[in-house]
Amino acid sequence: GNRCDMFTTVFQTVKSLTDHISIEFKTDGIHMQVMDNSKVSIVELYLPVAWFDKYECEQNVVLGLNANIMYKILNTREKMQKIEFVYETKKTDTLSIHFTGENKDEYDKFFQMPLIDLEMEQMCIPDIEYVAEFSVASNIFANLINQLKLFGETMDIFCSEEKIMLTANSQDSGQMAVEMKIDDLDSFAIDEGETLKISFSLNYMQQICSCNKIAKEVEIKLSENYPLSVIYDLGEEASMKFYLAPKMNDTDE
């Protein structure tokens, strides 16, 4: 049940970023990479075979789906029902989705989801050496982001060896600043003597944090002039990763 809930939450977040997604069903598990409509953020989902109760894939297939329809379907699942996906190569224009369970009050449901042809290039995301990394309880971080969003559109994040400051401000609402003490974080690392100050869209941060229920902790990695990386660990080496490009200050040359 818990993993089925996670799966639904993943698609709730994805549909807020983009309309269409391509999912790769591979012999080693499910891979998905999605770029949002305005090309500011990327989501990567990896669910290995071990994450599923049962997973059989004879050949790699890439399926194009409408994110809203997928979420609509997942949203009709009752709490205790399990999810089954079936794709047959002789019936290539639809994906079958079944919700079944033991509870006699919950009726089994069967969906045929139309597939779409998508020409989507997989982006190659380079491995970079991040200057600062920290982990924090995902629900606490999501709350802070939601509060900051009330005071501005942009979050400035400042990191030093002593502290992390998150700040949002606007002409009308004034300023909100949050100090995250290093001792209170689940983990923290920064290159010696470094300080960072980077800005990100709170709109996107809010969407990225909206799936905080999928993991107790969120890991955040930062480097100047590189996308921020936000990682949710889903267990069994499964993960959901977000990359968000920084906002360039108008004052920059």
Please report which band the strand proportion falls in: under 5%, 5-15%, 15-25%, 25-35%, 35-45% or over 45%.
35-45%
The largest beta-sheet arranges its strands as 4-1-2-3-16-15-14-8-12
First-residue to last-residue Cα separation:
52 Å
Report the total helices.
4
The parts where pLDDT drops under 50 for at least 5 residues are none
Number of strands: 16
Rg, Å, rounded: 20 Å
How is the biggest beta sheet arranged? Answer: 9 strands, antiparallel
Shape: elongated
List the helices and strands and how they pair.
Layout (H helix, E strand, L loop, with lengths): L1 H16 L2 E7 L2 E7 L5 E8 L12 E6 H8 L7 E5 L7 E7 L8 E6 L17 E6 H12 L4 E6 L3 E8 L3 E8 L5 E4 L5 E6 H8 L7 E6 L5 E8 L2 E7 L9
Antiparallel strand pairs: 1-2, 1-4, 2-3, 3-16, 5-6, 6-7, 8-12, 8-14, 9-10, 9-13, 10-11, 14-15, 15-16
Helix pairs in contact: 1-2, 3-4
Give the gist of this structure.
This protein has 253 residues and is of the alpha+beta class. It has 4 helices and 16 strands.
For this entry, give a set of tags.
253 residues, alpha+beta, nine-stranded antiparallel beta sheet, four-stranded antiparallel beta sheet, 4 helices
